[in-house]
Amino acid sequence: MARPAAEVIREEKRGDGGYILFLGSASLLAALWEEHLVDELNVRIQPIVLGMGRPLFPVVKERQNLALKDSLMFKSSVAALRYEVLQ
User: In sequence order, what are the beta bridge partners of 43?
Assistant: First the structure.
């Protein structure tokens, strides 16, 4: 039986391993965010407005401060932003 993602990540963070990276899963991000298991957030902003879509944080129960650690603008006008999650 599969264990909850937050349980697995919490266990891994207690270990002596390296970084844990996951890409493109809003539902996984929401589960880990709620448990305060996200240390860094990398966001790419596309220069288009769709007017619809899935929010990155559909249900955030409390304010969470971020600190911009790095930013990069590509020739395509895509902005890459790297934030540290302040605990």
Answer: 81
Domain ranges of the chain: 5-85
Q: What is the DSSP string of 9-49?
A: HHHHHHSS-------S-HHHHHHHHHTT---EEEEEE-S--
How do residues 54-63 score in pLDDT, each as one tens digit?
Answer: 777 777 778 8
Instruction: Record the pTM.
Output: 0.81
CATH number of 5-85: 3.40.430.10
Q: What is the maximum span of the chain, computed from C-alpha positions, in angstroms?
A: 46
Q: Which two tokens stand for residue 81?
A: 């932003």
